[in-house]
Amino acid sequence: EIYQEFVCDDSASSFIKQSIRIVQANASADVQAALCVHFKLGVLPSHHEIVSVVRTSVQSAGVFATDSNGFEMQQRKYVYDLGIQGNYFPMVYAAYIRDRHSPVALIAERSHGAASLVPGELACMVHPHPDMA
Q: Is 0.85 topped by the overall pTM?
């Protein structure tokens, strides 16, 4: 398990905490292991976005999947013409990237936006910019 803490300024209430845990899935699952991520946010400076990005060696070719309203996984593909904002999709609890050899899943405790803007990356929008939400 990995714990990270970032302090945004000198105030004790301005912080970001993140813990990441690797969990094993059951033998019948498509993904053998997953990253469970827990975020805790304090008071953040205005006009900031908080994005957690997992970079891997997975050759995902811009394709990833997010859960669709908590019931099934929906395949997503990066569309260059839509820009960054148009390539974030709702993630109720999970998202994953995969190639022929190794899938990587991200499981969160609450809904976030998810994207794979670069092959092998999985991004989770923890705190959107207020003007863009």
A: no
